[in-house]
Amino acid sequence: MTEGFRPSHPKISIDDDPGIRSQIESLTGELSQQQLAKWALIIAKKAMAFVDDDQQHERQIRLALDANELWQVNLASVYQVRQASAKVEALVAKSTSSIGAAALECISWAIASAYVDDNALRAADQAIKLVNLTQPNDAVAVTAERQWQYQQLADLARNINLGIRHML
Q1: What is the spatial distance between Cα 91 and Cα 65, in angstroms, rounded to a whole number?
Q2: Is the backbone of residue 13 left (phi > 0), alpha (psi -120 to 50) or beta?
Q3: pLDDT (tens digit, 9 = 90+) per residue, 54-68?
Q4: Confidence of residue 164 (pLDDT cuts 50, 70, 90)
Q5: Which residues form the Imm-5-like domain (predicted)?
Q6: CB atoms within 10 A of CB 30
Q7: Which of 10, 84, 158, 160 has the greatest number of beta carbons closer than 10 A?
Q8: What is the average per-residue pLDDT within 69-75?
Q9: Contact predicate 128/16, CB 8 Å
Q10: What confidence tens digit (pLDDT) does each residue in 95-105 have?
Q11: CA-to-CA distance for 77 and 88, rounded, in angstroms?
């Protein structure tokens, strides 16, 4: 851990694995906002499987994900990403299930990581909330999700440290 690092608490109420979360949070401090946005989108794309069936092919979701990816390579502005994120957030209210709404919240936070780097961790926390909803009282599932998140982040950091920059 870096000197002075103190893990924060999730902004939402979730059953979590705080040890792995603090490792993730520590590692996020070593990456740029673009790199965190890339990681957040990896999480968001996994959450897409839980979006309500009637919203699975919603064009606004794909456009918002694209806006974040374009921002990562300086081809979209923060304003454009904010607009796209707001459209996904509006879809949350139209969701017919708490699971679908949680998935859309995860996606929305991931997209919003383009303008606030802490939103990447919020997307990861929202993915844990999604696990809590889909697999209630399953600490093994929560730990598995956090380990997967950590591995994705560590792999991204390792690739970047090696100078390999992969496009999504």
Answers
A1: 14
A2: beta
A3: 998 899 999 999 999
A4: low
A5: 27-155
A6: 12
A7: 84
A8: 95
A9: yes
A10: 999 999 999 99
A11: 17
pLDDT at 34 over 90: yes
DSSP character string of 9-52: PPSS-----HHHHHHHHHHHTTS-HHHHHHHHHHHHHHHGGGS-
Sign of CA pseudo-dihedral 118, 124, 125, 130:
positive
Give the pLDDT band (50/70/90) at residue 2.
very low
Q: What is the pLDDT of residue 89?
A: 94
Whether the CB-CB separation of 24 and 127 falls below 8 Å is answered with: no
Per-domain residue ranges for the chain?
A: 31-161
Using DSSP, state whether 151 is helix, strand or coil.
helix
Non-local (6+) Cβ contacts of 114 within 8 A are 33, 37, 67, 68, 71, 72, 78, 81, 85
Give CA–CA dist 131/94, Å, rounded: 21
Specify the pTM.
Answer: 0.89
- Per-residue pLDDT, 7: 56
Crossing angle of helices 59-72 and 78-94, in 10° steps, is 150
Residue 97 near residue 52, CB atoms below 8 Å = yes
